[in-house]
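Q: What changes when fe (ii) ion is included in the input?
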Amino acid sequence: MNKELNLDVKNILGLKLPTDPRWVNLAEIQLEEILTDHAYCEQKAATTCITLITKNSEKELMVEELSPIVTEEWGHFRQVLAELKKRGLKLGRQRKDIYVNKLLQFQKKDGGPDDRFLDQMLLMALIEARSCERFKRLSEGLDDEYMRNFYRKFMESEAGHYTLFITLAEHYIDKTTVRKRWQQWLDHEKILMKSEEVRGDRIH
Ligand SMILES: [Fe+2]
Ligand SMILES: [Fe+2]
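A: The predicted holo structure follows.
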């Protein structure tokens, strides 16, 4: 891992609550569940980016930057799918995404278009940041060296995505507003993480 990425990952630890260390051990014994859930996280990342593009087509930089992310996230989905197949495991049904659903409740309902756009960017940044942190845990804590490397690559990608969503937010909205709202999202996520039970069948 290069030095620059190390810094990115360090920033992500702007997350206010680290993952419970027991999570990796639980995830390790439910790999089929984790891979299935992970596959759908990638699918949702790709489809959300497509929706962001179609709903914000006037935002040229965003369209330009998110278009390749769609391809990248879909590539991630295919990689996880291939991993399941290789292991003779099945892609199960999509699960209810409790983490994301609870985060969605924090989006401003009464704001203007800029507020909504900002929250969409920060929500994406937060999901990428937490995913990155979880992949980092897997890349450090799994017994299987192949799987540690598998997750290290995902960690690196999601670190880049996290910074991209923050950068895009700051391109369209003034920095002070972005930073202030970002802190509120981080505080909210901390409370949410604290209240959730630790379960090894989900990425989040
Ligand atoms: Fe991804
Ligand atoms: Fe991503």
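Observations recorded in class: The longest helix spans residues 113-141.
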